[in-house]
Amino acid sequence: MQLNRDDLLKAYRQMKTIRVFEERVHDEFATGDIPGFVHLYAGEEASAVGICLHLNDNDYIASTHRGHGHCIAKGCDVKGMMSEIFGRADGLCGGKGGSMHIADLSRGMMGANGIVGGGPPLVCGAALSAKTLGTGGVAIAFVGDGASNQGTTFEAMNLAKVWDLPAIFVVEDNGYAEATSSSWSVSGDAVKRAAGFDIPAQRVDGHDFFAVNEVAREAIERARSGGGPSVLHVKLNRYFGHFEGDAMTYRAPDETAKLRQEKDCLTLFRGRVSEAGLLEDAQFDEIDRDVDALIDEAVSGARAAPVPGAQDLLTDVYVSY
After folding, report:
1. Where are the domains of the chain?
2. CATH top-level class for 5-303?
3. What would the DSSP string read from start to end of 70-96?
4. Staple partner for 88: which of 19, 43, 83, 266, CB 3.0–4.6 Å?
């Protein structure tokens, strides 16, 4: 599918928003004002945006502990996200979820998840609902290479195939499950594992937005048309540690610097689009300024917002239908 200029502008804006959002959270966390744990998505932007560009509010995604990028790519409010990370009452979840549990069902974002492999079973439920109600929706589970070893992931893949669900399982393989290299902790690979369930699968370079966008289009169109589940194995890299405060002693000293220099998905995107004459540098620069201003506003707003009060303690315990 040929992307038009509006698509390209949207894709760059979302990837840039994720990058600046994550780098700013990295800086703000160092001040000690952000409660809980934070896991950053910087470096992996092309995966979330390349995939979610095909989705709408009738489609659902389930994320991981590293969920900020998925939230932004699915259309969650950036200022509400920042307030949530700061634990403020005007956050997307009232300041009660924090970084690892951001959710917005109005946008089809079922939530980041602190449970490794917790998303795939949820996605089967969302996909079953879409199939039963005939909405034409799809449901996508983002998991990491560590979660690809979890029984919940395999059980969900099996169920999705047995029930022929419009579900897609995206394995974002950044090379490390926390500090454990996937090169020796994952036997075989996600594509061969998918074959065991008779599910079509593809491997793709997660630094290449256009490659991710194309394989996602094929999988999503197949799911919408009743073709059942798919698996995408996205090879990419994260720039920061598993969590903020991770010394990353398991990585080579110059590993992340080399990745930023040679495999930055934003730099590759901008270079390719500029060389093709599809967008001008001035358009990219304008987006950069807009995003910087947005994140500044998000942080200042979050810092000024109130924290949840005692009266909020027992709310949101039960679902109200």
Report:
1. 5-303
2. alpha beta
3. HHHHTT--HHHHHHHHTT-TTSTTTTS
4. 83
